[in-house]
Design brief:
- By secondary structure, the chain is an alpha/beta fold.
- 40% of the residues lie in helices and 17% in strands.
- It contains ten helices and nine strands.
- It has a five-stranded parallel β-sheet, with helices on both faces.
- β7, α9 and β8 form a beta-alpha-beta unit.
- The radius of gyration is 18 Å and the shape is globular.
- The protein starts with 5 loop residues before the first strand and ends in a 6-residue tail after the last strand.
- The model has no long low-confidence stretch (mean pLDDT 94).
Length: 241
């Protein structure tokens, strides 16, 4: 079991940043990445559809003998991770959450931060509880179309710079921006430009990778040293021919 792969999934390319952090932190581990592109984006779908998609992705990865699972999607985490853990209770299941807590701890006394999220995350009770505990310093901002825009412009991300500037324009006094969707890591540079470089950016990828490493260790599932890691990629998208 220790030599088995770790499953990682997202609705598209967003989770690749989480995968990269995990692979950097655990170079001896093998990973399987599943991009559920057929149902991308998750963030604008009803909770029942997101839950079904996430459960099916988890089931597919565990059927490939994965020893652990990383839900590399904020939307799927807040919507479905409890259901995934209930069904696959014998395996470690790690979620991706917006880095609200570390951002809140590091804000200045009168500082504010914007939490960019999908509509599904914005409407979730779990995210609401996170924000409610931050004394009004975290401003949640749902941008339903942003993940799809990023997915469609990964080869020319600067094309959506005007859209990013317009979204953030009302929040020019924010000290920080929280990336509450794994896709948003692709626009980190555009966000910095919108603030003329004077902003701190938080995402949950590093925290998820560190949590995975910890859970593997306490479950005695860490890969043997020196066996060599690797990554396999899969997609649910079927191209017409």
């Amino acid at each position: 079991m220790r030599a088995n792969p770790i499953g990682v999934f997202d609705s598209g390319v967003g989770g690749l940043n989480v995968l990269r952090k995990c692979a950097e932190l655990m170079p001896d581990e093998k990973f399987i990445y599943l991009a559920d592109e057929a149902r991308m984006p998750y963030g604008v779908k009803p909770a029942a559809e997101i839950r079904l998609a996430a459960l099916q992705s988890a089931e597919r990865l565990f059927s490939m003998n994965c020893k652990a699972l990383v839900v590399a999607c904020n939307t799927a985490t807040v919507t479905a991770i409890d259901d995934i853990r209930a069904l696959f209770s014998a395996r470690p299941v790690i979620g991706l959450e917006p880095a609200v807590k570390p951002c809140y701890r590091e804000l200045g006394k009168s500082g504010k931060a914007v939490a960019l999220v999908t509509a599904a995350t914005y409407n979730s009770a779990k995210f609401a509880r996170l924000v409610d505990n931050c004394d009004g310093k975290i401003i949640p901002l749902a941008v339903p179309e942003l993940a799809k825009l990023i997915e469609d412009h990964t080869d020319d991300i600067r094309a959506i710079a005007p859209f990013v500037r317009d979204v953030l324009a009302p929040y020019k006094n924010a000290e920080a921006v929280i990336l509450g969707c794994s896709h948003y890591t692709y626009i980190a540079d555009l966000i910095r430009e919108a603030y003329d470089g004077d902003v701190k950016i938080y995402d949950g990828a590093t925290g998820a990778a560190e949590r995975l490493r910890y859970c593997l260790a306490i479950s005695d599932l860490t890969a043997p040293i020196g066996v060599g890691g690797g990554i396999r990629f899969y997609s649910t998208y079927v191209r017409d021919v």
